[in-house]
Amino acid sequence: MDDTVSAVVGPCIACQATVNTPSQKPVKSTQLPNGPWESLAVDYYGLLPSGDYVLVIIDKYSRFPEIEFTTSTSAKATIPKLDRIFSSYGIPIQLKSDNRPPFNSKTFSDYCEFMGIQHNSITPLHPQANRLVENFNRMINKVMRTSSIERKCWKQEFFKFLRNYRATPHTTTGKSPAELLFQTRPYRVRLPELSTSHDTDNEVRERDAEKKLQAKQYADRKSYVKLSNLKVGDLVLMRNERKGKLQPVYDPKPYTVTARKGTMITASRVIPRHVITRNSSFFKLLKVPGNECGRGGIKMNGTCDECNVFESNIIHPEQLGGEEEIHENEQDDNLIGEAEEAVDNLVGDHEAEEAEQRQDDMVRRHDVDVDIQQEEYEDGNGQVQRGRRPRQRRAPRWHEEYEMGDY
Fold it and tell me: Number of structural domains, the chain?
């Protein structure tokens, strides 16, 4: 019985889009760069009380932070600040950023190409992929809040924090960021000086690997952490980015996986036409009923009574657009027109059924109203009247007289 119920209710798209299915992929640690200032992570923090933004750069090897204040997050304002930093520390080999402006602009891409920098963009809406700089931004946020509570100059407190952070041994590497970046000379601050060792690369790599393994084991112990088995051609539902109380967790309109690179998945659909790239945790494999139609189609409006929807209008996967159909559609727009026409016909039939159902409900409600209006009742004089019974009004209860008992 349970298997039968699961087979009937499982393919319901409305149910699948409503039920939250937590999904998290196992942590994949990145290797430590070969040396300092080879691979950097960049991001923006702001808005500050002064109206400025903070351009934050973190060296992945030494964890050394560098910042610049900007009045705008545009590429025109960002590139001169990067030029100043690169003139002091050198040009890196790799630069990782998110997919938001200004890092997704053509101007920034051309600048990286001109400087010989390999620009790597993380998956949209997945800041965990740039965790190093995101964690540093969280510490900046703490400094700004504490300075506001203590009524201190936030800029002085910010630079004080920056000096001390650079000179404090990092929990992962065991060495201070300044010591790893400036291995030929000490980095002097007001804190007590620490003994330095020039043969630190092996020690740093061992500690880095150990800490990353601990973090991976801690994150992967959750029950819903598992490898994604999505592949090109699968029908999936995508998690809604901004959902209200009545909005489903997942978009009920299926997507088709068209490309996959690690945990980055690109999916598309024909109607409405949309292509999107997200982390694999944003997608859920769509359960497809096996015997609803001879071609393995899916029911767009559900298959269970819980949804209170029709069980007709079957759309086949090829009408939603798979990888092969997407490539063909790029070459021949006629196929898109045929697919849209096919779905429009199905949706049109469904809308016609809904309109007919609404009309029947209106007639049914009208008949009930007519019956009420033709009701027979006796008036105050004992005469039989026909029509709607008049409203009977009573005086408020606080107008009643109270009877006091004997005391």
Answer: 2
